[in-house]
Specification:
Layout (H helix, E strand, L loop, with lengths): L2 E4 L4 H9 L3 E4 L5 H11 L2 E4 L2 H9 L4 E3 L5 H12 L20 E3 L1 H4 L5 H6 L3 E3 L6 E2 L4 H24 L2
Helix pairs in contact: 4-7
């Protein structure tokens, strides 16, 4: 499975990749040299929007990718094309967007005292991060998540149809 390292400019993308099930380390306060060292030692793909960091890491033999998209859908589409990442969330594979730990299913009874009463009434499936204890459910934000992923898939498909033409 692909493992990534993202720099401080890609915090939102980090959360998206984690939701998609990818192991992503994120640092927003490290010098470029330290990021390059971590990528090399842990054999992670360095994702960055910083052209200088991209050039230096690539020159040093680190697998790197310069993320150029403006929107999250564009960024996800770029990564899907380059690394063949899937643009579907399977909560059984998802990682905590906050801390990168794999989330696990939680019974409503186990977490009911930690969620809003309305959430308890409307939703039955919940997941929890065993590391930071963050609780997740497919609430109203789920439509927005689905929309962004759908946009990303459409971008991938349209770019493939352009390259398939003679």
């Amino acid at each position: 499975m692909l493992r990534f390292l993202t720099d401080g400019m890609l915090g939102k993308l980090t959360r998206w990749l984690r939701m998609l099930g990818y192991d992503v380390k994120y640092y927003n306060d490290l010098e470029d040299e330290h990021l390059i060292k971590i990528a090399a030692e842990e054999k992670r793909i360095l994702l960055t929007k910083d052209m200088d960091l991209f050039r230096r890491s690539s020159t040093m033999g680190i697998q790197s990718f310069l993320v150029e998209g403006r929107t999250e859908a564009e960024k996800l589409a770029e990564l899907a094309k380059r690394f063949k990442i899937r643009l579907e969330i399977d909560v059984n594979d998802s990682r905590c967007p906050k801390c990168n730990t794999g989330i696990v299913h939680a019974s409503k009874e186990a977490i009911v005292d930690r969620i809003p009463k309305s959430t308890s009434r409307f939703y039955k499936d919940f997941w929890i991060c065993p590391n930071c204890s963050q609780i997740y459910w497919q609430g109203s934000h789920w439509k927005k998540i689905g929309h962004v992923l759908s946009q990303a898939r459409q971008l991938v498909e349209s770019s493939q149809s352009r390259t398939d033409k003679p």
